Amino acid sequence: MKHRTPAQREASHGGRRRLAGTRLPAASALRPAALSAALLGVPFAAGCALDATEAGASTAGLLGATEAGASTTGLLDAERLAEGRAWITDGTLTLGDPAVVGLVRGGKIGCTGVVVSPQLVLTAAHCVVNALPDALLVGSALNEGEQVDLVRSFLHPRYRLGEAAHDLGALVLRAPLEVAPIPLNAAALVTADEGQRLRIVGFGQVAGDDPLPAQKREGSSTIGTIASSTFRVEPDPAQPCSGDSGGPALATRAGAEVLLGIISSGDGACSAGSEAVRVDAHRETFLAPLLTLVEGTSRELGQRCVVDRNCASGLCLAPDDAPSFAFCTQACTEEEACGEGMRCGDLGASTPAEGAGDRDLPEGKVCRFAGPSPGAIGSACGSDDACEFGLCAAFDESASLVCSALCFPGDPQRCGPDATCSPLADRDGVFGCARLDDDGEDAPFVATGGCALGGARSGAGSCRAGLMLGLVCAMAWRRRAGQRKPGCQSP
Fold this sequence. Notes:
Shape: globular
Helix content: under 10%
Oligomer: single chain
Number of domains: 3
Radius of gyration: 23 Å
Distance between the termini: 38 Å
CATH superfamily of the largest domain: Trypsin-like serine proteases
Number of helices: 5
Strand order of the largest sheet: 6-5-2-3-4-8-7
Largest sheet: 7 strands, antiparallel
Number of strands: 26
Strand content: 25-35%
CATH architecture of the largest domain: Beta Barrel
């Protein structure tokens, strides 16, 4: 919002005073699939999100407030981001829109999100690419709202730093919200929609140099040029900027307000419009499968899950070898049968996807996969998106595809003690971590069970469904023996 006098502000809100709150700088880093694309020669636009001193990239454009917090040692560890801020201009304070929420970290708000299902919030990928927010704010400001816990995050598998085309992320809540979700737009945007009215809502501020704390505002804009995956948001008179990233662009369809797009990027001066990611363009390939994954219930042992209520057993496990690919399990003893392709094993470093809670696990044992967990190094795969580190490859021309991780022969620790850095058969000059066989031989271990969605009970059809889902967690590219840095975290 452009600045108005205090009297004008109070008049427009029935005398209500401004709400308190502050903004969150959220760190960011390369996800494995993006890194794989960079090193394997696939086009990868670093864009404005990378530190300009490391990648030569512009530092303006993405609208989520970001912060340079991590050391940078080149492409593999490019975690520092230049800070960029701006806010909804020419808007008004709002105490409504309960489905529009704030992303909280370090006691501040940095991005916006929108509730699309009782336990799922949609936002911009660049707001959550490196770390799970501390909490989600339901309310209009930090001092008046409720903060709720999060379980994990998802990114669109084709997201690339600095690009708006697939800048979609999602946050899974620990418990469902008693808030009416905003429906997703189902009708394809067409040229005739250009110029139609939008309503935008977010936790940004009134101008790039405004020192006042973040609070929820709404404003009016219009639909500009429509592209295949995005559309322009033109000022009329309001427009979104940093801190409003991940917020909704809403429009009325058939008498009801629907989510048309997610705010992504714009100019640094907050004066020439911004870019939103089209919901309709990603509905079938990303949003609908994600909603199915999060909302599903009664899944069997070994099947993909996100929260405990997805599983008939009531226990969703994030395995230590592939924490992004949680699966349904149950407590067991040595004598109990866990089903085909699974065994009764120690919990180890694996954690329940929703945290330990008050579960009573006999002898600390649960049903686990007999081989590597789905998504882990050495597990069967069909695409990069089915793997924890974003790399599905073959180590022999006659061998099947398995999940791996990029590595360098001169850095033996990168693959850990259970794998070795070996050349890929399907990509010249590229090396990946190959799981050692049971005898410790320098040969790839080829897993026989599981895919990203179906686990040990999966058939080919289920695997194809999992691959279409393409929901890979954002992981910073850093693997050391016994150490990993997750971009989406499961407590």
